[in-house]
Amino acid sequence: MVRALERARRWIGTLSPPDVAGQLEDDSLRIWKNGDAAFMRNWPYAYVESMRPDSSVKNRLGVTLLPKGDQAGARHADVLGGFQLMVSKKSANKDAAIELVKFLTSPEIQRTGIKGQSVFRDFAGRAFERSSDTTLHGHRDI
Predict the structure, then answer these.
(1) How many whole angstroms separate alpha carbon 51 and alpha carbon 137?
(2) Which of 1, 10, 41, 119 makes a 20 to 30 Å CA pair with 98?
(3) Do 83 and 48 share a domain, yes or no?
């Protein structure tokens, strides 16, 4: 692990810009959209931003999972946050609230989020990977 971090540190100023460690989301998105980066890890909204008319990378990008190791039980890293939908045990309308959470996490609504807002959720991501849907241009396994 230490060797990997030391190697990545040497990339600063060569593969990565000198200020990479201090960049915020908007900085990396701007650099990416200008066509000045080969890779970018960002929140899903960046996909929609990347496809806007002012983007140099419009229709020239791919989306994929982060790499994983090849040992038994290896899995791709989780990089998205969550939406933390929950129902209080003190809710006056607990049954209705539970139904709302079920609705908001349903496959249909999650697909709507992917297509309209680039909002990814775990279930929708797995559902997309198994479908022939082409909403995300260039999405592929690595």
Answers:
(1) 10
(2) 119
(3) no
In a domain, 73, yes or no: no
Three-state helix/strand/coil letters over 78-140: CCCCCCCCCCCCCCCCHHHHHHHHHHHCCHHHHHHHHHHHCCCCHHHHHHHHCCCCCCCCCCE
Domain that holds residue 57: 1-61
Number of structural domains the chain divides into: 2
Q: Is 35 inside a domain boundary?
A: yes
Per-residue pLDDT of the chain (142 residues; tens, 9 = 90+): 789 889 989 999 988 888 888 998 899 999 999 998 888 888 778 888 998 999 999 999 888 777 788 889 888 776 666 667 889 989 999 999 999 988 887 877 766 665 555 555 444 444 444 334 444 444 444 3
Same domain, 83 and 142: yes
138 contacts 121 by C-beta, under 8 angstroms:
no
Alpha carbons within 13 A on the beta-carbon side of 138: 11
